[in-house]
Amino acid sequence: MWESAFIPRNRWLKVKKNKKFDGVKMKWDIQQQISEEFASVSDEEARRIQMAKVIKGPILGPFCKEVSSVKKASSK
């Protein structure tokens, strides 16, 4: 009776074979690109460049500016 209520284990273990989008591969490719981009730059300089890109970006840029202004206002 209880056995029919459970989902078979192998149902969750199936993997799609023909994926059009592979997030893990995309992440790996981006990490490789970033690694190559900053290979000849010191860690401190790479962090400064990355933060400058984040601040100029459309998604996290406004958030970073708001956090920065709140920190400046609270320190006064």
Describe this structure in words.
With 76 residues, this protein is mainly alpha-helical. The chain has a domain at 43-76. Helix content is 63%, strand content 0%. The protein has 4 helices and no strands. The chain has helices at 10-13, 23-37, 43-56, 61-75. The model has no long low-confidence stretch (mean pLDDT 83).
How much of the polypeptide forms β-strand, as a percent range?
under 5%
The whole-angstrom Rg is 23 Å
Please estimate the helix content. Answer: 55-70%
- Count of DSSP E strands? 0
Quote the average pLDDT: 83
Low-pLDDT runs: none
What is the end-to-end distance? 69 Å
- Write down the overall geometry: flat
Structural class: mainly alpha
Listing every helix as H and every strand as E from the N terminus to the C terminus, the arrangement reads HHHH
Give the biggest beta sheet.
none
| Subunit organisation of the chains | single chain
Q: Helix tally?
A: 4
